[in-house]
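Q: Could you fold this chain for me?
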Amino acid sequence: MHIKLVLHPSGAHIKLVLHESEAHIKLVLYQSGAHIKLVLYQSGAHIKLVLLQSGAHMKLVIHQSGAHIKLVLHQSGTHIKLFLYHSGAHIKLVLQQSGAHIKLV
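A: Sure. Below is the predicted structure, expressed as structure tokens.
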């Protein structure tokens, strides 16, 4: 099942697509060539959120499988990676940005 909304003001168009098919919901906004894509994907154990705008993109991934949660923020080359790892008795938190990283255990 999908719902499509298209607005055409003065040549430039805004397209809103809401697509729900079993496990994923996709929201796409298109405006004058540049587009913003929002993807909510839930299948089994992970949720993926992607924001894509005019080449540069920001990716947010929340992955929960077994004992760890991974959070990734990726924006135009530089990325911030956040790991929450809970297994047994420890929690590991890792922040990684542009090669340099901070590890909190």
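A (continued): The chain has one domain: 2-104.
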